[in-house]
Write a structure and sequence with these properties.
132 residues, 2 domains, 9-stranded mixed β-sheet, globular, 26% helix, ATP Synthase, domain 1, single chain
């Protein structure tokens, strides 16, 4: 019996990624890292900035994801996000610029605790990419 399921990642421009041979997806959910396997219970969850790992029968791919929402139902995982970038395509200039913008937003007076949390997550994730 197959242990594989379908994945589709959509951003505002297009369908970014579609696969039908996915074994596991690990996403940065608000609750913490969440692993999705075939026959997972139906779920809807919000995503925070972090690294999404997609494991297929033959490979592992990583993506930097800024935010979004996921839905898993009937062995099909759909992820809607405003920003997704292949991990190996992120360059130092993008990371440094994004960190600088995030730090400027973090210093603003009018942001709430949830926004502070998300911005801090973004900064921490981007800094970890520089190290790796």
């Amino acid at each position: 019996m197959s242990e594989l399921f379908n994945l589709e990642v959509i951003n505002p421009e297009k369908s970014f990624l579609a696969k039908d041979d996915v074994r596991e997806v690990v996403v940065p959910a608000f609750e913490g890292e969440m692993g999705i396997l075939k026959d997972h219970i139906s779920i809807i969850s919000f995503l925070k900035p972090g690294i999404m790992r997609v494991l297929t029968a033959n490979s592992e791919e990583k993506y930097y994801i800024e935010d979004g929402i996921l839905e898993f139902k009937d062995n099909s995982l759909s992820i809607l996000t405003s920003s997704v970038i292949r991990y190996n395509e992120i360059d130092r200039v993008y990371i440094e610029k994004s960190i600088q913008e995030a730090e400027e937003n973090l210093s603003k007076e009018d942001i709430n605790d949830q926004q502070k949390f998300l911005i801090s997550q973004k900064i921490d994730t981007l800094k970890s990419i520089i190290v790796n």
